[in-house]
Write a structure and sequence with these properties.
Blueprint lengths: L1 H24 L12 E12 L3 E12 L2 H21 L7 E15 L2 E18 L5 H11 L3 E8 L4 H26 L2 E16 L3 E2 L14 E2 L3 E14 L1
Antiparallel strand pairs: 1-9, 2-4, 2-5, 3-4, 6-9, 7-8
Helix pairs in contact: 2-3
């Protein structure tokens, strides 16, 4: 009987010691589950450069009551445009067909449908200009050669790798600075990186064109301002918190 009482007393003492030790360790980092001992921040970075290429989306639209005539006229006009661009020393590989579509318009009069139809044929090409000083000349020549639809102009940098590296470095520096500031204010330390997510995007400045560009330029150069090309990187980083 005395032996059993003594054994129970020893067990109780050991249990009490364990409770006290656990309570003592509950301060500091062990007061929080490991999953909650993290710090999440986001950082943004950007790098800019002058564009070295321009992509022009040029189109020709023809309309006729005879679908065959509409197609032939469109094909002839686009062939003339492409020949004109090649004469400007643009490489054939830098001229790419984007689309060729035809749609039918039903003609209406004051009393409703007239029974006549107009056939619209639209073809589009993408032209890459590598000498930006020629961009205005290319536009003017294309308009004079038969282009009657300009879908847009996009200035860019052909090799964006160096810009991406610089923007990424800036984004990480921005995120780490935020983490250090937060940790200092909270009285903790920034630990190892637990998780990282990156998003990247390029943001060319919209080119400024004269309103007359969509009209017949008569072969004259069209004023174009390329602006800057910027690559932006955002990162979300989760750090461990150290006490």
């Amino acid at each position: 009987m005395l032996r059993r009482v003594w054994t129970a007393l020893v067990i109780a003492v050991l249990a009490l010691t364990a409770v006290i030790a656990t309570a003592g360790a509950s301060s500091g980092e062990d007061a929080y589950p490991a999953a909650l001992r993290t710090l999440s921040v986001s950082g943004d970075g950007a790098a800019s450069a002058s564009p070295d290429i321009a992509d022009l989306e040029l189109g020709v639209q023809t309309i006729d009551e005879d679908p065959t005539v509409a197609i032939v006229d469109n094909t002839t006009a686009m062939a003339n445009v492409i020949e004109t661009l090649i004469d400007l020393d643009l490489h054939e590989d830098d001229i790419q067909t984007l689309s060729f579509n035809m749609w039918v318009e039903q003609v209406y009069g004051s009393d409703g449908p007239t029974g006549e139809f107009l056939y619209h044929v639209v073809s589009q090409i993408l032209v890459r200009v590598r000498d930006l000083e020629m961009t205005g000349d290319v536009l003017g020549a294309a308009l004079a050669a038969g282009v009657n639809n300009v879908g847009g102009i996009r200035f860019g940098v052909e090799d964006t790798q160096a810009l991406e590296v610089a923007a990424r470095d800036a984004a990480v520096d921005n995120a780490m600075a935020k983490a250090e500031q937060l940790a200092e204010r909270l009285g903790v330390n920034v630990g190892n990186v637990r998780h990282v997510i990156e998003t990247t995007g390029d943001f060319p400045q919209e080119p400024r064109l004269e309103r007359a560009m969509a009209l017949d330029a008569g072969g004259a150069s069209v004023p174009v301002s390329p602006g800057d090309f910027t690559v932006r990187v955002s990162v979300s980083i989760v750090f461990d918190i150290e006490f």
